[in-house]
Prior knowledge:
Largest sheet: 2 strands, antiparallel
Helix content: 55-70%
Strand order of the largest sheet: 1-2
Distance between the termini: 39 Å
Radius of gyration: 24 Å
Shape: globular
Number of domains: 3
Number of strands: 6
Amino acid sequence: MARGLLADDYLAYHNILTYIEDATAQLLRYRADIQAKIDVNKFFASYFTCLKEGKHAIFREFEFINSTPYNRACFVDTFHKCFAALGKKGDLLAIRDYYALVSVLCSDFPYEMLQKTAKIVLIDDAHDCLISFTDFLYSFQLQLYYQEFLEASSNTYQSLLTESHSPRDIVVPTDHTTQVHKEKQLPSNSTLTATEGVDSMKFYKSLSQLIDKYRFSIPSLATLKEILSASPTTTFYGFLVALSKSEAINSGIGRLPASTNIFDGVESSSLLKVQSVTIPTSKPKKNLQKVIKNLQLFKKI
């Protein structure tokens, strides 16, 4: 997609200036902290090597993580590498417990993002329901990486849903007068539930217009069409679930392994030392504190 771009467009597409500014800020902060001479070339080489390897998004503020699509993808990948050992054991956690883990890697990460992730898995905002690591991971990736697209898609879906319930006038001729009847009543917003549906192809055509209207990460039209062609009508919840489980979506983002290989190479210890921690589904929060303690010790290294 980036091929054939002009120099300025290429820099913007890859957010190069964002990283140069961040590297410069990190250099100045580091030099002020250690009060010593720094090899600038070596520092920048180290920064961009870390960036290329995707190891730059850990223990950073949310503003930085959220600033580029690449940062978002790398943050989810880091989460996977840190906690895959927990998922391999089959532990189930509530969304608040996942938030506690995410917060160790990014202290100011917004809880709202995790609430939206839970709604992809559970349809309702059920804080106490337990979620598998795999379901959470790919739903979390979808919500974080495509957050603007999902919001625009939700607005588009609601517009189509409301439009499909809008009353239309029908003229019924009689002997003496002309009566105007409503074809159907417009239900209240509370009745426009997730069980309603819209025409899939009409939804697809509306989504295709977002590519030109917005400048944010968006799934390929081919993938969207494939997902929405599976049924003549679709609900927004069904659409989100299909996106989160799509290998084409995951491959397009390009950081996480396929869902069938999510635990390949994962041993009893992962990037962080969590091998001695067990999180039974009956008492996740108590044992979760041990995980966080180990992570905090790692953070100081």
